[in-house]
Amino acid sequence: MTEREDVHNSDVPVLCRSCEARHKGICGALSEDELLQLSKHTVKRTAARKQELIHEEDEVHSYSNIMAGAVKLTKLMPDGRQQIVGLQFAPDFLGRPFQSESNFGAEVAADVKLCSFPKDVLESMLGANPELENRLLRQVLKELDEARQWMLVLGRMTAKEKVASFLSLIANHIDPEHEGDSVTFELPLSRAEIADYLGLTIETVSRQFTALRKDGVIEIEGNRHIVVPDRETLKDATGST
Amino acid sequence: MTEREDVHNSDVPVLCRSCEARHKGICGALSEDELLQLSKHTVKRTAARKQELIHEEDEVHSYSNIMAGAVKLTKLMPDGRQQIVGLQFAPDFLGRPFQSESNFGAEVAADVKLCSFPKDVLESMLGANPELENRLLRQVLKELDEARQWMLVLGRMTAKEKVASFLSLIANHIDPEHEGDSVTFELPLSRAEIADYLGLTIETVSRQFTALRKDGVIEIEGNRHIVVPDRETLKDATGST
DNA sequence: CGGTGGATTGATACTGATCAAGAGCAGTGG
DNA sequence: CCACTGCTCTTGATCAGTATCAATCCACCG
C-alpha cells in the first residue's frame, strides 16, 4: 500500500488519470480500488474568482482537493472586519475533518479546479486506510506551521515587513527551489485581499508596495505582475530569518 | 482497539496508573502492551516557570505529554521581537511529528509535569496504531483552529479586544462549561508574556487591564488573580462572536 | 533596609488608519 | 469611436491608537 505503479494502469479511474495533483495530494495514499470507489462520488468542477465555496459557520458536507488555483480561508467579525487565515493551493486538501460546521469561510482567490466528494465517503476511508490519515496529518501539520509563522507576521512585524513577507511567501510558493535567484509572478490576491491577509488597510499595502519598489526590492508591472530581482534582498526586508 | 476497560487492570504500567491525562491525551489510544512498551522509555519530570524546553531551530529527539501546567510556544525574530504562537495545557501533546528541527521554542509558563519519550518510539507506534494517529490528527486540528482564531485576534482586533480575548480564552479553558456565569482564575502568564501573545507591549496590556477593570468587565486582585463577574460581558468586549 | 523584578501610570512620538481625491483601465452602450 | 461607468489602485492630508521613554509603585527577598 506504500508504493505502486499505476501510470499505465487502466484500473485507475478515468477521472483521476489526468489529475496532476493525484500523487502529491492525499489521493496518493489511495489504492486503485479506493480511487475507484471515491471517484464514483466525486465531482470535478471549476469555480471563478470571488466565488464563495464555504460560508463561515455553515454546515459542510463535502471535502475537496484543490487541483489548480488558489483558495483563501477567511474569518469575519460581526462588524465586518475580516482576516484571511490561510491560503491554499494545489494539491491542498480543503475541509475540516471531524467537524461538520466550518470555523471559517472559503472563497476562490484565483480560479480553481476542484475535485469534491462527500464527507462520509472520505471519512470511512480514513478509518480503513492509515496512510490516508497519515497524509492528512502531514498536511494539517504543514498548515499549522504556516499559521504559526503567520502569527509572527501579524503580531510583530511592521507594515513593510508584512508586505515583504507576503511577497516572499508567494515567491517561495511559485518556485520553492533556488531560493537566491530572481522570480517573476502574478499576485493571486488583490490589494484588498492582501490587506486582509496582513491585518492592514488597502492604502497601507499600496504604500508599502511603492516603498519596496522605490527601495529596488521589487519591480511592479501593471497591478498584479511582480518581479523580484533578488530574493535574498526581499528576505532581508521581511526582518525575519 | 477502540474501547477497552483497564481501570483496574494491573497490566497498566505503574508510571501511567496515576496519570490523569492518560485517557484524554494521546495515550488513551494505546493498548496495555503499547503503554508498557512506551513507559519503558518514558521519563516523568517537572519543570519550573521560565525553563526552556525546546530551543527554536534545535533538533528535538523526544515528545512529551503535558500532565499539568502550561507551556508557551514562541517564535523569535533576529532583533529580539518575540511572538507566542501557542499555549498548551494538560493533556496536550508537545512536539512536531515528522520533523526533527523545531520551528518554535517551548518554554514553561506555569510549572509543568511532563511525560517525555523518544521520538522514534512513538513514531514506530504511530505506524502500527491508526487510532493513535487519529488522536494526534484531532489534536493538531484543534491547534490549527486555535491558531487561526488567534490570527483574527492578532490581525484585526484593537488592544482592548485583544486583552479581552485573552482573558476569555483563559476563562474558557478553566471552565469550558456554563459559558455565561462568573469565573475566577490565576493568570498563567505575566504581563510581558501576555504582550508577546497579543502582539502588544507590556504597557499597553497593563493599560487595557485597568481599562477593563474601570469598565467593570473584570476585577483584579494582586497581579495575577482575575475575577470575571459575567462572561457574556467579557465576550462582548472581545468584539467577536 | 536596600535591592530586584514585575506592574502601573504619564508624556510624547510615530506608525498605520481614516478620510478624501484622483488616476488607470476594462467594459458598455449610444 | 468615444463618453460613461465601475472597479482597483495610488497618493495626499490628517487623525488616532499604540509604542516608546521615563518615572514610580509594589511585593518580595536577602
Compact description:
Two copies of one chain form a homodimer. Chain A has helices at residues 14-17, 32-40, 119-128, 130-156, 159-174, 191-198, 202-214, 231-238, and strands spanning 43-47, 52-54, 62-76, 82-89, 93-94, 105-118, 183-186, 219-221, 225-228.
Walk me through the structure:
2 copies of one chain form a homodimer. The first copy, chain A, is an alpha+beta fold and 241 residues long. Chain A has 2 domains: 14-153, Jelly Rolls, CATH 2.60.120; 157-238, Winged helix-like DNA-binding domain superfamily/Winged helix DNA-binding domain (Arc Repressor Mutant, subunit A, Orthogonal Bundle), CATH 1.10.10.10. Helix content of chain A is 39%, strand content 24%. The first copy, chain A, has 8 helices and 9 strands. Chain A has helices spanning 14-17, 32-40, 119-128, 130-156, 159-174, 191-198, 202-214, 231-238; strands at residues 43-47, 52-54, 62-76, 82-89, 93-94, 105-118, 183-186, 219-221, 225-228. In chain A, β8 (219-221) and β9 (225-228) form a beta hairpin. In chain A, α3 (119-128) packs across α4. The longest helix of chain A is centred in the middle third of the chain and has 27 residues, at 130-156. The model of chain A is unreliable at 1-7 (pLDDT under 50). The A-B interface holds A 73, 75, 77-79, 81-83, 85-86, 96-99, 103-104, 127, 130, 133-134, 136-138, 140-141, 143-145, 147-152, 154-156, 198-199, 239-241 and B 73, 75, 77-79, 81-83, 85-86, 96-99, 103-104, 127, 130, 133-134, 136-138, 140-141, 143-145, 147-152, 154-156, 198-199, 239-241. The structure holds a DNA duplex (30 and 30 nucleotides).
